[in-house]
Write a structure and sequence with these properties.
disordered N terminus, Pseudouridine synthase, 23% helix, five-stranded mixed β-sheet, 303 residues, 3 domains, alpha+beta, Archaeosine Trna-guanine Transglycosylase, Chain: A, domain 4
Length: 303
């Protein structure tokens, strides 16, 4: 294949790849792995997943990297494991673990009562060992240097918080929450409520927005697909990834106008934004309504 043809083919590859990230890998590690395997440079993700955590990591490939703000990934679901009777300075198993020495005669009913305090909307203080920046520096860098870190609280929402199993000192839970919720903080605060201390021992993200483990591929399986040249079969097309957005079918003439930054007629003014899709099902552009003239104008053009 000629270099020009190869570049043209690569530029046409666009979509979402859902990866089941293993424990020990950073989100950046996964991005670099996919860049190497695909030979593409335009690879990004919709939100990091801690190295200690496994599960759903949404990767954007090609022109689809510009879709990040439009994909519905503002809620997450996790399976988590808390260990009672000890605390951690990082709120998880990677930190310095200090047993509290407190009697562990805690009932399942007490666990359920404590969990109720972390359901619904509430103020949460993020862990000092987090990537939140303070005056341009990451909080965990300051914490590791022994400096005091005071982070402001933020509103988070836990839609559901269910007990999977309680086998003292381990508590297994399922948490469905808003983006930005720190499960580590919930573990730590729940330990305070129970009076015995607790830390996060394991975390697996099962859902990120509209994407779940059902959509995901493991890194070993993805490597095999790279070797076979079939990895793109696991790519969710950009138009399909925006399945909750209204769709406008573009004729060839409309497509040409949009590509050149010009407006095209809208059939109605019923919605403000839409995805412009070609007759072949490819995402051509994101469209914004001009209500005065009832026309679509291109907001982002992808091809």
């Amino acid at each position: 294949m000629r270099d020009e043809d190869s570049r043209r083919l690569k530029s046409a590859i666009s979509g979402v790849l859902v990866v089941d990230k293993p424990v020990g890998k950073t989100s950046h590690d996964v991005v670099q792995f996919i860049r190497k395997g695909t030979g593409l440079r335009r690879i990004g993700h919709t939100g990091t997943l801690d190295p200690r955590a496994s599960g759903v990591l949404v990767i954007l490939v090609g022109p689809a990297v510009r879709l990040s703000e439009y994909l519905l990934t503002d809620f997450k679901r996790y399976e988590a494991s808390f260990i009672l009777g000890a605390t951690s300075d990082t709120y998880d198993g990677d930190g310095v673990i200090q047993p509290t020495g407190i009697d562990m005669d805690i009932s399942e009913e007490q666990i359920l009562d404590a969990m109720k305090q972390f359901t619904g909307e509430f103020e949460q203080v993020p862990p000092a060992y987090s990537a939140i920046k303070i005056n341009g520096q990451k909080a965990y860098d300051l914490a590791r240097k022994g400096k005091a870190v005071q982070l402001p609280s933020r509103k988070v929402t836990v839609f559901s918080f269910d007990l999977i199993e309680f086998n003292s000192p381990e508590v297994a839970v399922d948490i469905f929450c808003s983006s930005g919720t720190y499960v580590r903080s919930i573990a730590h605060e729940m330990g305070n409520v129970l009076g015995c201390g607790a830390y996060l021992n394991g975390l697996r993200r099962t859902v990120s927005g509209q994407f779940s483990l059902r959509d995901a591929i493991t890194l070993p399986d993805l490597q095999a697909c790279f070797n076979e040249g079939t990895w793109y079969q696991h790519l969710i097309p950009a138009a399909e990834a925006l399945r909750d957005m209204e769709e406008v079918l573009l004729t060839l003439e409309m497509e040409s106008e949009i590509r050149h930054g010009r407006r095209v007629p809208a059939e109605s003014a019923a919605f403000e934004f839409a995805k412009g899709v070609s007759e072949q099902g490819e995402l051509i552009a994101l469209l914004e309504l001009c209500p005065d003239t009832v026309e679509w104008k291109p907001k982002k053009v992808f091809y």
